[in-house]
Structures are given as structure tokens and as C-alpha cells.
Here is the input.
Amino acid sequence: MSKNANLAGAFPAMGRKLRLGVVGGGAGAFIGQVHARGARLSDRWQIVAGALSSRPEVALASGRDWGLDPDRSYTDWREMARAEAARPDGIDAVAITVPNHLHFPVAMAFMDAGIDVICDKPLVNTLDEARALIGRQRETGLIFGVTYSFAAHAMVRQARQMVREGAIGRVTQIHAEYFQEMALLPADAAWSGTPWRQDPAKVGGAATTADIGTHAHHLAEFVSGLRMTDLRAEFHRLGADQPLEDTAFMTCRFQGGVPGTLLVSQAAAGASCGLRIRISGTEGTLEWDQENPEYLQHRPFNAPHIRISRGHGAGMLSDAARFVHMPRGHPEALSDAWGNLYEEFAIAIEARREGRDLPDGLLAYPGLEEGAAGVAFIQAAIRSNAEGGAWISCAFDA
Here is the structure.
């Protein structure tokens, strides 16, 4: 990365800014704007095309607001895939920011057009769809990134590398939680702008588990390096009347029989964005809290506790140092994590398009396998709850 060019294993310099198209994200949407800001903040992308809404008038008006060329502001994502693939200056990748049930057809259309894909989470609604995408990726060799954005915080990368380097010994237990309060609002206010999140046909049969539970699941696997193998789940509706769960409590097992818990709720009064991970081993514990993302707590066994803060040097490892953009004491935030993620996507896509190999371990962006594991997790939780909290395998088998 040019900002830290002296670092061993720094990111390669950019050849050119890549061209990004966006599906979804128009007026009234939320996550599409987040993707766009992340791409711009990475300084490796320019947004040149979009099908920003399923409503033609909103798509065109949003395209004007985004500063898109009218010829590249589309009212249909199918036409966008065809037209951009045919242009000599067509998009290098598409960001998919539409409701969950549309992820599969949109992703497949752009993959069929030979365009790399960046998709919001959860990946898709069924395991058959996940397997179909994996099969198409293997046929095409395209890059497919999934935006588990919290995994791109510098201190999450610090924790991940510390676990791999044995800082806490052998992992013995894993605990993840994610608490919010929005489901305590009346149903029409809680899901204002995104009513599809409570439509079973559009979210694959789970609401909170699919929405924020997948973040907790991915973070637990990403930091620990262990795949979740089995779970038992209990769903609850504790907030406003709605068809799907707003709370889920799970007991989990990871590879090697490592036990853990995963607790999520969007009906926890006073909670904002309480994503937290704790990983304990034979020699210590690591804890990271998304609402205080600058710090990683390292608690060695029978020794003084250590608080590691994001910045240059002072214990920062290489995987985290690549994502340090400001000196210690100048806070970075989730917007920076999105920029980090889009930087990794750009490096991978540029290398693929130029036929260049990258050093092993340079990038750790979430891809199709991680996205598919999230789908397996959701489906296992739904089944476990339906069967009275039975143990269900959640291991993904392509």
C-alpha cells in the first residue's frame, strides 16, 4: 500500500483505478451507499455505472445524483450486464446491494457476462444457489467477494494473526455476540425502507440470524481459523410483532470439538451495534468490540493484561499494519474497514485481469466459500429451531 510502502508484504501499487458498477443502492436504500463510499475511500475504484433501483424513475434519478453518465444509468440489471460486457471501457466488477433473494440471479448474470462480482451478505438464500455460484466461479475463474465488512478492521486482522501465531495457545472456546435494539420499534418503523427483511420468501426463512447473525458467525470463523461444524439454536420474537425471529441464542461446536456460543438480538434495549468476539486458548484470551474498534484486548494467562491500540509499530503485526492509515490516536472506523475491503477486492481483481500471481496470504477478503458457509449456518439454525433446539450440522460441503 502506498501509504505504508516500507512495510514488508505491503499491497502492490495500483495500475489504474478499476471501474465499478452498482446494482441497487438508489434513493431510500442504505447499504448501496455504504458500498459506494467504501469503494471511493479505497482510492482504487471509480463508480461508472449502475442499475440503482427496480423502479425506473428512481433508477434514473439516483443515477443523476451519483453523477453517472446517462448512457450508463440503467433501469434493468440484465441490460446493464449485457451492455457493460460489450463496452471496451465496461465495468471491471459489479457490487450487488439488492435484497437477499435477488443476489443469486444478479450474480449469475454478471458472472455469465465475464464480470467479477462483489456481493453483499448473506450470499444467497439456499445452499443449492450457493453451490451453483461456486460451480460457475470455478468455470470462469472470476473473483467473487462477499462483504463481511467487519473482518476488514485492522484490529480484527491483528487478532486473526495473533491466533495463527499462537499468542493464546491452542483455541479452547469461541464466543460471538451481536446486539441491536431496532426490533423494539413498531414493525413498520423497525424495517422502514427494508420491509423485505421480514419477508420469509425474500430472506430465506430467517431475519436477524441472516442479517446480523451471519456477521457474528463469519467473525468467529475468520479470527479463530476454525469452521463451525454444528449448532443448536433457539429463536425468539421479543420486540414488535413480526413474522420472523428478532433474537437467536445458539450453542456451537467448531473444528476439533471446540465449544462456543453465538448470541444475536435486534431487540436488546439500549444496544446499538454491539458486535463482539472473545476467543480463549490455553495461554490467554483475545477480545474485540466493534463499538471500540481501535483496541484489541489481550489477556495472557496469569499475567498482566495488554491493550493493543491500532497504529504504526508498538506490537502491530503485518496483516493489521497494511490497514493502518492514520497514526495512533487518530481514530479509524467502519467506513475505513469498508475501504480496506474494497482495496483487497481491487488488488485481487486487477491481478486476475492482468494474469499476475499475488503472494500467499497477502489478501484475506471473504469469498464465495465464506459466503456459502454463512448460508449453511442460517439454514442449520432454522432447522435446529424448528426441531426444538436439536444439534444440526452447519458445515458447508460444496
